[in-house]
Specification:
The complex is a heterotrimer of chains A (500), B (118) and C (614). Helices cover 77% and strands 0% of the residues of chain A. Chain A is globular. Chain B has one domain: Methane Monooxygenase Hydroxylase, Chain G, domain 1. Helices cover 69% and strands 0% of the residues of chain B. In chain B, helix 3 runs antiparallel to helix 4. Chain B is flat, with a radius of gyration of 24 Å. Chain C has one domain. Helix content of chain C is 63%, strand content 6%. In chain C, strand 3 and strand 4 form a beta hairpin. Chain C starts with 20 loop residues before the first helix and ends in a 5-residue tail after the last helix. The chains are: A mainly alpha (500), B mainly alpha (118), C mainly alpha (614). Chains in contact: A-B, A-C. Chains A and C meet through helix 18, helix 19 and helix 21 of A and helix 5, helix 6 and helix 7 of C.
């Protein structure tokens, strides 16, 4: 046995290695630096993310070919599909870190520890987006979860934060058990944990001849699909596996909530797509019904329960559940446009969702009850930039053009209609109308209610201002400039090519 | 396919058989002279009944965790050592990176005061 | 200047031309609006801000947009009136955007929008002038939102790609939401929320229909000519048409979906009311003629009866409600609903005359409603009340104002010689040709219109000069935001119409008279396109459901021509309309009321509207 690793192999892991290296640097910083710790740690983590972004972009440019460069036996791949999600993950990580420093200072967090945990989680997520093997998927899901458990309970003096960390840990490990059991059954049925080998055994999209294994191990595959769907659905907070989401989102420190609300999904969905649309593509008749029902229930429950929330973080948690439903619609379409829509969605979602949490964060950093929606009364008079930016995020989350949120939703539902599932699109748009009820409530409070007497002006700080401006600009540019969509199309070409 | 697992089955049977044989022999042949001390749950002298929510010094946990971490990571050297010759330079680099990561963790723990007892 | 895509769509010019005048026209208001936000606002020593530079910039932008839109009106190629089968897209600007999704940037002018674009820019110029006079609280944001909404509405009028149309369709909603919600009166938040939820519900359903068209059209092209060339199957048409009609009907205040309209019109500040009632409502009626009818001709024929009944109920409902209102703004709100339903009735007649009249009436109604709503604000600035029972004797106190009020009142009542008469009359002729019973009922309902308008006018104008209500208090709460402030002081006016107020009313009054006296330039431009739409609809009625159209590129004058095959032998002379404006009565079966009025109709139309026609 000799291991031959080429430059391409090292290249595939380079962005992940950079993020891990950055996280280790942060630990050392935390150990030795005693003054201006928050500033230095923020600088190092942002530089790391930028470097990883450059590496990822380089990988994108190098791997122009449609097939996986690592060949059929690889554990992970450096294909464009993975790189595209790396962009989304690095983006959401960077946005969350940009708004975190004031919060870190107010809460007296250990900046190096806190940010290095975010980077460890990011590395796990990137590994997940790149994985080509069920074992790597499980490994990376544990890596990212471990960091997120600690992060959720990081504010250890606050009981809510403790509760969040513990609840997330217990339920998540339970879900991991489902996932690994499902993987074991799929392995039992197909004889491999490698996704590409599984395709070869089960038959791909093009309907390659399936071996006799499929017929013999049919129930194994079915149960495996169901168990893995449960495991993934938990991580994506899809109804009915969403119960932990509002509590954890509310209890966790706000930068963590902002980060995990986007990044976890942006990491799990590519793996979900690789396992279901690629490896189990031939079995789509079995899993489609499951995803179809989950998508419908998720969209309805998420949007309806969000209506009655008085806490912004809970509201955004339910809104996140609903958005997972929209993405699930795109995914269950099981076509090229659907995969493109999923990829595109997360670039957009990073901007609008983390941006929406920025408001909570800025107010909480000032010691106000930023989580209470009622405190947003007349916010426009107190901070025009914050109010206008949050208004844009709300309209984008609700799916109004010309913001990118509309385009993302458009592609997702168009994929469903193209696949012949108009009913999913209809339920999607009707629940989107319901969602206006809570998104507009925030807008009404901020813009249309008079400010209370004696309320102070709010200043967000330069980094947060930059983040808000960049996110708003991003929401217009990403939607209107076709370059981003075409990027997603190219990403998906590398992904679907293999199955034909 | 299942044929390969027959050896595992044999192993299970052998292990179970050996265990039961040995335990059974001691049960039958061994002498028994029970006293009050011998029948207590803890022979070390700890009291049997205490308030359950007694606080335990956190230092023990830290030491236990550090021990577990470094012990398990030290175990990873064994499989590496077995195949080192075949891995050549790649293997050397891998373990170098591994040790460096361990070292960062060690330095971090040290600087954070995890190794100080007081 | 705009390179929006990667690959050109085959067979379609990927050209924006130079200069891309339509693009400039479209984005001029929004650009000005965003620039406004960058202008610093200078605090005044006595409190508040000085908005003078902001207002100057906004007004200049609005007037420049209007000037540019008139250019297209003048340069519009009249074409050959006799050839009804030509549907020319003039001044086309086409850029690829996302070709794989059928999304392109496609603007153009044809007979349907050639008048509605200047209506939009003109009325918006007046509305922005009104806003400059009336709004002093956060005026910068108000004007910016007005200008952004103008871009949205212009985009709806100019788009030839369904996706682009939808983007602009939603874009105009967001500014309107804030205009009503932030600057409105009393129950503004309820009104604006209702407005948005209603319209967005319909719009999202329409969005699903657009998905469906994308998924099923060969080549996945959402450009209008491509969609026209490949009409959906008759069964699909039914659902698609209903989805479109839900969205467009809600926005146009079609009868059972109208209930957002009165609240929104009343609670909105007057400039926003003008924006929503005069222009935004027309985007919906326009879009029905532009997209819903020609794309789904079979379904349109199938549902025209039902929709006509709804429209008639709407006319009746609006008129009855207007009759019992006390608030003068609310009377106008309900009268607007009534008139919008009349326009819809004309559209659902699905023939040349009905559509022609509807387009004409869209312009008329926009102008008259703008004038009336602004008049309400002017009257309110003097009376301090909007209740009919609390005011009287305006004519004696302010004779000039009374005169203008009379003119607008007569126009709203369809006095012959004023714009709306020609429009409503042609609509009724069109309805008559399609279903004489509907026409008869609709004509009877217009008596109600006279009744409530007379009541409205008499209540304000006649009688002794009333006692003046107390002046608004200085610490005016939210409810007093729309009190007419001139120029910046918050006090009641005691003089007759000022010249600066006349500057708003006189242009509108002039247009009303002009369209009433000389409608020929109007119909010259609309008729060929309307004939093409009517041709598509006729072919849809034959049950084939396919009006196979072809797209041809005319390099000369950069004109795209959509060739419509009517499904009827086009060599027949009867299909060629020698005079578009004259109702082609010979082709219709005379029914009971038809026989009675046939001769009168022919003669009246001939004389009133097209004296030179042979």
């Amino acid at each position: 046995m000799t291991i031959h690793l080429t430059a391409a192999d090292y290249g595939a892991v380079l962005p992940i290695m950079i993020v891990l290296g950055g996280a280790l640097c942060l630990l050392l910083t935390d150990a030795f630096v005693k003054v201006h710790e928050t500033e230095i740690a923020t600088g190092i983590s942002l530089a790391t993310l930028l470097l990883a972004f450059a590496a990822s972009a380089h990988l994108w440019a190098v791997n122009a070919g449609p097939a996986f460069p690592q060949g059929a036996g690889a554990m992970i791949t450096g294909d464009r599909f993975g790189q595209f999600f790396n962009f989304a993950l690095l983006l959401s990580s960077a946005l969350a870190i940009l708004i975190a420093p004031p919060y870190i200072r107010t809460s007296h967090f250990d900046a190096g520890e806190f940010l290095s945990l975010i980077l460890f989680a990011t590395a796990g997520m990137m590994l997940m987006a790149a994985s080509l093997n069920l074992m790597v998927i499980f490994l990376s899901i544990e890596l990212l979860s471990l960091a997120l458990y600690i992060l959720s309970g990081f504010d250890r003096n606050r009981p809510r934060s403790q509760e969040a960390g513990f609840k997330y840990f217990l339920l998540s490990s339970f879900a991991s058990a489902f996932l690994i059991y499902g993987m074991a059954l799929i392995y039992g049925a197909t004889g491999s944990t490698n996704l590409i080998r599984i395709v070869n055994v089960l038959g791909g999209h093009a309907g390659t001849v399936a071996s006799t294994h499929t017929v013999l191990s049919s129930p194994f595959v079915l149960i495996g699909i169901a168990l893995m769907a449960v495991g993934f659905a938990f991580k994506l907070s899809i109804v009915p596996f969403h119960m932990w989401t509002p509590d954890v989102y509310q209890g966790a420190p706000t930068p963590v909530t902002a980060f995990m609300s986007v990044a976890t999904k942006a990491a799990v969905f590519p793996a979900f797509l690789r396992v279901f649309n690629l490896a189990l593509g031939a079995e789509s008749h079995r899993w489609f019904g499951i995803l179809w029902a989950l998508a419908i229930v998720t969209m309805i429950v998420g949007n309806v329960l969000a209506l009655s929330q008085s806490s912004m973080k809970r509201l955004l948690a339910y809104s996140g559940i609903a958005h997972a439903g929209y993405v699930l619609v795109a995914m269950s379409a099981n076509n090229r446009l659907g995969a493109t829509a999923v990829a595109f969605y997360f670039i957009v979602y990073a901007f609008m969702n983390i941006g929406a949490f920025a408001l909570v964060l800025v107010l909480e950093s000032r010691g106000e009850a930023g989580d209470e929606i009622a405190t947003y009364r007349g916010l426009f008079a107190r901070s025009p930039l914050l109010a206008v930016a949050t208004g844009v995020f709300m309209f984008s989350l609700a799916g109004f053009p010309p913001t990118a949120g509309f385009f993302a939703k458009y592609y997702a539902f168009a994929a469903a209609v193209q696949a012949g599932h108009t009913e999913l699109a209809i339920i999607g748009v009707i629940t989107s109308v319901i969602s206006l009820g809570y998104y507009l409530r925030v807008v009404v409070l901020m813009f249309m209610q008079p400010v209370e007497a004696g309320a102070e002006q709010v200043r967000a700080g330069p980094l947060s201002d930059f983040m808000l401006t960049a996110s708003v600009a991003g929401l217009f540019v990403v939607g209107l400039v076709p370059w981003f969509y075409n990027l997603a199309v190219q990403a998906v070409q590398s992904f679907f090519h293999f199955t034909t | 396919m299942l044929k390969e697992y027959v050896y595992v089955l044999i192993l299970f049977v052998l292990a179970a058989g050996l265990t039961f044989t040995l335990l059974g022999l001691t049960f039958i042949l061994g002498p028994r002279r029970p006293t009050a001390q011998k029948l207590a749950p803890y022979e070390s002298g700890m009291r049997d009944i205490e308030p359950p929510s007694r606080r335990f010094p956190i230092k023990f946990y830290v030491v236990a965790m550090l021990f577990l971490l470094f012990d398990i990571e030290a175990i990873s050297f064994f499989p590496w050592a077995v195949v080192l010759r075949r891995l050549h330079f790649f293997g050397f680099m891998e373990i170098f990176v591994f040790v460096m990561v361990l070292l960062v963790g060690y330095v971090y723990a040290w600087q954070k005061g995890a190794l100080d007892w007081h | 200047m705009l390179t929006l895509g990667i690959a050109p769509v085959p067979g379609m010019a990927n050209e924006l031309g130079f200069p891309p005048l339509l693009t400039i026209l479209l984005f001029l208001p929004a650009t000005a609006g965003l620039l406004l936000l960058l202008l610093p606002s200078r605090p005044r020593p006595e409190g508040g801000y000085s908005w003078f530079p902001v207002k100057c910039l906004a007004q200049t932008a609005a007037l420049a947009t209007f000037g540019l839109s008139v250019y297209f009106l003048v340069e519009f190629h009249l074409g050959n009136l006799g050839r009804s089968s030509h549907w020319a897209i003039q001044f086309p600007e086409h850029g690829t955007w996302l070709p794989s999704l059928g999304i392109s940037y496609f603007l153009g002018v044809d007979g349907l929008n050639v008048w509605l674009v200047p209506l939009c820019t003109g009325v918006m110029a007046v509305a922005i002038f009104a806003a400059c006079l009336m709004i002093n609280r956060r005026a910068k944001a108000f004007l910016a939102l007005m200008l952004i909404a103008e871009t949205g509405m212009l985009g709806v009028f100019l788009s030839w790609n369904l996706f682009l149309f939808y983007v602009f369709w939603e874009l105009m909603l967001v500014p309107a939401y804030f205009l009503v919600g932030v600057w409105g009166e009393g129950r503004r938040i309820q009104a604006t929320t209702k407005f948005v939820i209603y319209t967005i519900f319909g719009s999202f359903i329409m969005l699903v229909a657009i998905f469906y068209l994308y998924a099923t059209t060969p080549g996945h092209n959402l450009d209008f000519p491509a969609l026209l060339a490949h009409p959906p199957s008759t069964s699909a048409q039914t659902w698609l048409f209903l989805a479109f009609l839900l969205a467009l009907g809600i926005k146009a205040a079609l009868f059972p979906f109208h209930s957002w309209a009165p609240d929104t019109y009343v609670e909105a500040p007057v400039p926003a009311t003008v924006l929503i009632a005069s222009v935004m409502g027309k985007t919906a009626t326009f879009a029905i003629v532009r997209f819903a009818l020609p794309l789904f001709p079979h379904a349109a024929n199938q549902f025209s009866g039902l929709l006509s009944i709804l429209a008639i109920l709407g006319i009746l409902y609006g008129a009855t409600m207007a009759l019992v209102q006390i608030d003068i703004k609310r009377v106008l709100a309900y009268s607007s609903i009534s008139h919008m339903n009349l326009i819809l009735l004309g559209i659902f007649a699905l023939n040349q005359q009905g559509l022609d009249g509807s387009i004409l009436q869209m312009v008329n109604h926009g102008v008259i409603m703008a004038g009336l709503f602004i008049m309400v604000a002017i009257v309110y600035a003097r009376s301090g009340t909007r209740r009919l029972d609390e005011m009287s004797g305006l004519a004696k106190a302010f004779p000039v104002m009374g005169g203008f009020l009379l003119l607008l009142f007569l126009a709203a009542m369809d006095l012959p010689g004023l714009g709306s008469f020609a429009g409503e009359f042609t609509i009724l002729v069109g309805v008559f040709l399609s279903n004489a019973w509907f026409a008869t009922i609709a004509a009877l309902v217009t008596i109600l219109a006279a009744w409530y308008m007379v009541r409205w006018f008499q209540g304000i104008v006649h009688g002794p000069v009333g006692e003046q209500a107390p002046e608004p208090t200085a610490d005016a709460s939210d409810e007093a935001w729309t009190v007419y402030e001139f120029p910046v002081r918050r006090q009641r006016l005691t003089k007759d119409l000022r010249w600066i107020e006349m500057a708003m009313i006189v242009p509108l009054a002039a247009v009303v008279i002009w369209l009433g006296v000389i409608p020929k330039p109007f119909t010259d431009r609309t008729a060929p396109t309307v004939a093409a739409v009517a041709g598509v609809l006729r072919s849809g009625a034959h049950g084939s459901g396919s009006a196979a159209g072809t797209v041809a590129l005319q390099p000369k004058r950069m004109k795209l021509v959509v060739q419509v095959d009517n499904g009827v032998d086009s060599s027949q002379p009867s299909q060629q309309m020698p005079c578009i404006w004259l109702p082609n009565l010979a082709k219709t079966k005379p029914s009971l009321p038809g026989r009675l009025t046939k001769r009168i109709t022919t003669r009246l139309t001939h004389q009133m509207t097209h004296g030179s026609c042979q």
